[in-house]
Amino acid sequence: MARSRKSPAERYIDNVIRGKVTACRWVRLFCERHKRDLKTGRKRGIYFDRDAAQHAIDFYQFLRHSKGKWAGKTIDLEPWQQAIVWVLFGWQRRKTKTRRFRSGYVEIARKNGKTTMASGLALYMMLADGEAGAEVYSAATKRDQAKLAWDEAGRMAKASPYLRQHITVHKDKIFLKWDQASKYVPLGRDSDTMDGLNVHCAIVDELHAHRTSEIWDVLETGTGARTQALMFGITTAGFNQSSFCYERRKYTSQVLDGVIEDDSHFGIIFTLDEGDDEWDETNWIKANPNLGISVDLDDLREQARKAKELPSALTSFLTKRLNIWTRAAEHFIHPDKWRACGGAFDVAALDGRTCYAGLDLSNTLDITAFVLVFPPTEDDPFFRVLPRFWVPETAMHERSRRDQVPYDAWCRDGWITAIPGDVIDYEWIYRQIDEDAQRYDLQEIGFDRWGAAAIYLWMANRGMTVVQIGQGYASMSAPMKELEKLIVSRGLAHGDNPVLTWMAYNMVAMRDAAGNVKPDKKNSGEKIDGLVAMIMGLARATLHDPDALRSVYDQRDVREL
User: Fold this and answer.
1) Measured distance CA(520)–CA(533) in Å, rounded
2) How do the domains of the chain map onto residue ranges?
3) Residue 97: left (phi > 0), alpha (psi -120 to 50), or beta?
4) Mean pLDDT of the chain
């Protein structure tokens, strides 16, 4: 009989501990911590109030889904969600009769309803927590991102016949009709001001996107006048393991592990266990407790398929769909896919053909790359690549001896031109560019403006169209993603140039929180100049000939990649 009186949250916690629910180590530790505290908490001055826990869960019954197939229906929290709310709001401090937890951290894969849960939590803290003049904030790096959870809260409340009688939703805040000091406001680092806040609750969304603790610190400072304020971080995994978010994750894991004792900190992490096979579907539920509900298994399978093909998709799949932290830097090109785009071709057949180029100048002591990119034609469905490389003769010998890079063999075989002396003599490059401009229909040359003033003037004076291309995310992300697709679709033909292949295997990409990519010369370890030049050439080619891309992808059925 006692078992039947247990709440869904309690049954979930018990089932995780018993192994009846598939869960990762951190979720098990979360559940075990709760059960252990029920036995030992009194000695530390904390106790569990079932009524307070159930009160917070029951509040969600007043909310309605605002979109999708459940639009208009009551929000029924899943058992794992109930367990979070149950533990977060049920634990109290005996001496002050206030809530135990003052900070929280929830990390979970995308599409598991974290925004809905967080939005409901924010509304509860404003409406039903018993706090006069409750100021609640949804915070993110940008205000537009912060408004996602805020907008969801407004829609859920307005869809509720009961709640819409008690709240007013303005364009920039939600407040109580009888207590306008109680409000819910979205904030970003770009907000007009974050001064003078009296924070009862702050929900910091997508914490992994925060480079520093700036926003968190400002909001936390504003909680000083509140007796039971709550700072709550909710996020998916990210790329920057030196970030504030990763620090919070590490702290949370240490609390769960018992390394750090902090009765004021709440935390739970849904992810795969170390050593789990990320391709084994039976493990996916560990990061996706809503699998089969809001997380579609077929969609996950499709994302996994793409991840096996594309290195960039792999990183996104691991972080966003399996909630596994990765490094910011990632190898960009899969060797097998690159080799599949090989095979020598007749360079003479390119005579007179339209092309675009990228120029990556080294300092005068190492390799310089000029790469021609030829878009497909009616008779040739491939983007063909023709690279040119130069290196000072002295550097060639030194690199071959010191680093075991076969510059000398590549020079001997004609893949690199060795320039006599210790430095690059740009006259050699001028002559080659001039020759190529006469031999091919060279439309544009993309280049990095750094250190290129002299050669820029020379090209411009020769009547060539030259375009400066920055090396950041804004300029490089789109063509890099197109290059990746071309490699996977075998729409690229690189002619097995060994220098370009070496650079392709060297190249590491840097990824930001929004999924943009750029070459990472610092972490690539070895030279990638040829790839950078090729990406710049491809950027100009695809800008002027998008139909060529569509044709390539259509032919090879990779339109969704």
Assistant:
1) 14
2) 3-306, 341-499+526-556
3) left
4) 87
Angstrom distance (rounded) from CA 492 to CA 479: 13
**Partner residues linked to 445 by β-bridges:** 357, 466
CATH 3.30.420 correct for 341-499+526-556: yes
Q: Is the pLDDT of residue 559 over 50?
A: no
Digit-coded pLDDT (tens) for 318-348:
999 999 998 766 678 888 889 899 988 999 9
Least confident of 48-57, 64-73, 417-426: 64-73
According to CATH, the topology of domain 3-306 is Rossmann fold (3.40.50)
Q: How far apart are CA 69 and CA 84, in angstroms?
A: 24
Indicate the pairing of strand 466-468 with strand 441-447: parallel
Secondary element (H or E) of residue 396 = helix 393-403
The side-by-side arrangement of strands in the sheet containing 230-235 is 167-169, 174-176, 183-188, 135-140, 199-205, 230-235, 103-107, 265-269
| Identity of residue 336 | D
- pLDDT above 70: residue 394: yes
Q: Give 247-258 pLDDT, tens digit per residue.
A: 999 999 999 999
Number of residues written out for the chain: 561
DSSP string for 130-166: --TT-EEEEEESSHHHHHHHHHHHHHHHHT-TTGGGT
Per-residue pLDDT tens digits for 140-192? 887 777 777 788 888 888 888 888 888 888 878 888 887 778 899 888 766 55
How far is CA 302 from each of CA 94, 312, 320, 447, 554, rounded to the nearest angstrom? 50, 15, 14, 37, 19
CA 298 – CA 275 distance, rounded (Å): 24
Task: Give Cα separations from 340 to 329, 505, 532 (angstroms).
Answer: 24, 14, 20
Tokens of 107: 């990390």
202 with 219: CB under 8 angstroms? yes
Taking alpha carbons only, the member of 298, 303, 487, 289 closest to residue 383 is 487
Q: Summarize the confidence of residues 486-498 as an average pLDDT.
A: 92
Pairing of strands 368-374, 167-169: unpaired
Contacts of residue 101, Cβ cutoff 8 Å, sequence gap at least 6: 88, 91, 230, 264, 265, 266
